[in-house]
Write a structure and sequence with these properties.
483 residues; alpha/beta; Rossmann fold; 2 domains; nine-stranded mixed sheet; 38% helix
């Protein structure tokens, strides 16, 4: 058994903006079940404090002349101990974890997450009298990137793991910020936190962590190339012997069509005949024509370029002439929200767009849809295609990152050997997307073939159990003297 300090800037169900929250809310639970001694470190945002029931204060210290307290609670629905970094001056504010209600990044994000990282370092070095010191510190994304860098300055320290969930978000700030944060001078170098004259939080993890992981094997390979490396491919190639990809799992208790609390009609792969009732119910709820012959295509996503919004918009004029209904739930860049909303207003029988996020509706869309749209330009892992597979909702994806690792195209060969579980675009283009939709609709007209594709999808194992075991093996490697 190892003591693991798992550091994340968000964790479901306490606070969520994306896939990181789902991982941070699930992986520690899976690791605990495999006898690891877990602590989850999280900022004490107002939303988090409003959701916890029992808590106690453990320790207090001043950072940058601001008082910080450590609050202990539990991750709802689990036995995982959560330590909250409570600094009202930095975290007690309206809006999201990283930006205000207008989508603008908080002006003091560097300070906010520097404090978060310093607290993590003090815990790692047993400086806060918590009577617990980790063997391994597992950091996630740029918000905790300073932790491996700061720990590298200590000879007696825990092993460090750094997981990249999305290399596009790097935590870049100007050099003056480095000075204002009074970070150690020896960290300002090309083989340190300096990145073309800027302070890079993510480099703290990529340069100094004992082991680097990404959230899928394919993404670990892709980020070694200039196309996906965002200027860091050279560094990653230099550290490639310490880089690996471990596929994310999903919370099979929360995402289970057989027990899903948000569904009126539950089902599993042995009772797929019940699944269409969810489509009927959602059509009624969203004021769409109730028509079982139409294939429903769902999408629950951030509305950003990465998620393929450009080729979706280029395809809409043709898509709405096909026998489909398209349901999109999400929020993101304003111009995408406006364009999609305008299309939906012009074609209310074919397209429904809901701007925002609604957990219950997300589950209903997964259960109601026949197909799931995810033509991403890049996708480190992707979780929605895993949810879709679990719900017998066949994904339409591009062959990148975790999508390539989890979705097997419905080619004639793969259909015959019963491995096909979705539709893979030949390339990321509107033409390829429309071709894949047409292929899918042709098979949708063949009930027996379609049912087999759904069964293939639903019998896949995307639990955290296997992935958690791989993380445990990685922790042991990091703890080895010759890691």
């Amino acid at each position: 058994m190892s003591k693991i300090l798992y550091i994340s800037s968000e964790a479901f169900p306490l606070i969520k903006t994306g896939g990181l929250a789902d991982v941070a809310g699930s992986l520690p639970v899976a690791l605990l079940k495999q006898s690891q001694d877990m602590r989850l470190l999280l900022p004490a945002y107002p939303e988090v404090l409003n959701k916890i029931t029992r808590s106690k204060k453990l320790s207090a210290k001043t950072y940058y002349n601001m008082p910080v307290e450590i609050i202990e609670t539990r991750l709802p629905g689990s036995n995982v101990i959560v330590w909250l970094v409570d600094c009202p001056a930095l975290f007690d504010r309206p809006g999201g974890p990283y930006s205000n209600s207008h989508g603008q990044a908080w002006h003091d994000n560097a300070l906010r997450f520097a404090v978060f990282c310093y607290v993590a370092v003090d815990i790692a070095l047993n400086q806060l009298q918590l009577n617990w010191q980790p063997d391994v510190v597992h950091c996630n994304d740029w918000q905790s990137g300073l932790v491996p860098a700061l720990l590298s300055l200590h000879t007696e320290r825990p092993a460090t793991i750094f997981t990249v969930h999305n290399l596009a978000y790097q935590g870049l700030f100007n050099h003056q910020t480095f000075i204002h944060l009074h970070l150690p001078d020896e960290l300002w170098q090309i083989n340190g936190l300096e990145f073309y004259g800027q302070l890079s939080f993510i480099k703290g993890g990529l340069v100094y962590a004992d082991k680097i992981t990404t959230v899928s094997p394919s993404y670990a390979h892709e980020i070694l190339s200039p196309e996906f490396g965002y200027g860091l491919d050279g560094l990653l190639n230099n550290r490639s012997e310490h880089l690996s990809g471990i596929l994310n799992g999903i919370d099979e208790k929360h995402w289970n069509p057989g027990t899903d609390k948000y569904l009126k009609q539950k089902y599993n792969r042995h009772s797929l005949a019940k699944k269409p009732r969810n489509k009927t119910q959602l059509q009624e709820e969203l004021s769409l024509p109730v028509d079982a012959s139409l294939a429903m295509i769902g999408m629950v996503s951030r509305l950003v370029e990465q998620k393929g919004l450009d080729i979706i918009l280029q395809s809409l004029a043709t898509l709405i002439t096909m026998p489909v209904q398209l349901v999109i739930l999400g929020t993101g860049e304003t111009h995408y929200e406006i364009q999609l909303t305008e299309w939906a207003q012009q074609h209310p029988d074919r397209l429904k767009v809901i701007i925002g996020y609604n957990e219950a509706l997300a589950h209903k869309i997964e259960a109601a849809s026949d197909l799931y749209l995810m033509p991403s330009t890049f996708e480190p892992c992707g979780l929605n295609q895993l949810y879709s597979l679990r719900y017998g909702n066949l994904p339409i994806v591009t062959p990148v990152g975790g999508l390539a690792d989890t979705v097997i195209d419905a080619s004639e060969k793969n259909i015959k050997n019963k491995t096909a579980n979705g539709f893979v675009l030949e390339q990321q283009s509107a033409t390829a997307l429309l071709n894949s939709v047409q292929r899918a609709l042709a098979l949708f007209q063949k009930p027996e073939v379609w049912r087999q594709l759904q069964v293939n999808a639903m019998r896949g194992d995307f639990s955290w159990q296997t992935s958690a075991g791989r993380y445990i093996a990685l922790y042991q490697q990091a703890l080895s003297p010759n890691c």
